[in-house]
Amino acid sequence: MRVWAIANQKGGVGKTTTTLALGRGLAMRGQRVLLMDLDPHSSLTRAFGLPAEPAPSGVLDLFDQPTAELGPLVRETGIDNLSFVAAQTALATLERRSATQPGLGMALANALARGGQDYDYVLFDCPPTLGLLMVNALAAADRVIIPTQTEPLALHGLNGMCRTVDMIERSRRRPLPASVLPTLHDKRTRTGNDTLRQMQETHGDRVWDDAIPNDTRICSVDELVKPLSAGQYPGRGLSAYRRALEWLLGCDRVQMEQAA
Ligand code: ADP
Ligand code: MG
Q1: How confident is the model at residue 229 (pLDDT cuts 50, 70, 90)?
Q2: Residue 213 DSSP one-character state
């Protein structure tokens, strides 16, 4: 099992879109994929048509009962090989509770150790805050994927995220490779191209040498859960995500070879 955390402390950068597109791409390659929605805003959960009320079972249960099993929380998506665990709005209260409940930092890693063996890949759709949920995801991850919009303000978010990753890596004493995915890129604008170049200069080969373009076909996450009919052209955005997946799988292969 490989665990990827899709994370950025900034909202609206394409985390949920990336989780769905990569998860789908892996599932299409025949990998058994579990998506876990860690964001109290629950947009991934909503994309699969699960309403917020009444509160569904999901990620919060793994924190409420430290021995809860993953299996009963997993839902089918209607897409072959792709399952998910829902987020609840009440996940937002976790950060407050964590101060009085020590030991919650490994809740997700422990849950995967108990019930993750049914999956080849687990992808965490992280919330845009550096709190207990993000720390849990990074503690359990084999790789963090950082979607970053190619606009100047996003560079601050990226730098902050890289510092967080370094901090987690030091405390867990196991490498946490980071891969930066430039997103929502508009190659017709000078700002977009300048920002992309700056990202690549500052963060080197952590950054994909391509970018996910702005594509109206994926301007709603709901588009990413619709079945693709045979022969349908997926559009520029999804084609780019397919290339991004190849790059990430290549990064994983290198990482595993180095570890061997
Ligand atoms: P986050 O999870 O980081 O908040 P989302 O994945 O929800 O970000 O993306 C924010 C918004 O931008 C959503 O409405 C999404 O559909 C849209 N979006 C994301 N990526 C693209 C893209 N490449 N082209 C067009 N719209 C996109
Ligand atoms: Mg999101």
Answers
A1: low
A2: B
Tokens representing residue 241 in the block = 């995500």
Report the number of distinct structural domains present in the chain.
1
- pTM value is 0.96
Task: Verify whether ligand 1 is closer than 6 Å to residue 89 (CB atom).
Answer: no
Q: What is the domain extent for residue 231?
A: 2-259
Please identify, by atom number, the ligand 1 atom nearest to the C-alpha of residue 215: 24
pLDDT tens digits for range 67-84: 899 999 999 999 999 999
Specify the ligand 1 atom closest to the Cα of 223: 16
pLDDT attached to residue 96: 80
- Beta carbon of 11 within 6 Å of any ligand 1 atom: yes
Task: Taking each helix axis as running N to C, give the angle between helix 132-140 and helix 152-172, from 0 to 180 degrees, rounded to the nearest 10.
Answer: 60
Residue ranges with CB less than 5 Å from ion ligand 2: 15-16, 43
Which CATH number do you get for residue 253?
3.40.50.300
pLDDT tens digits, 193-227: 999 999 999 999 999 999 999 999 888 888 888 87
Containing 179, the helix (H) or strand (E) segment is strand 178-183
**Of 253, 224, 187, 246, nearest in space to 15 by CA:** 224
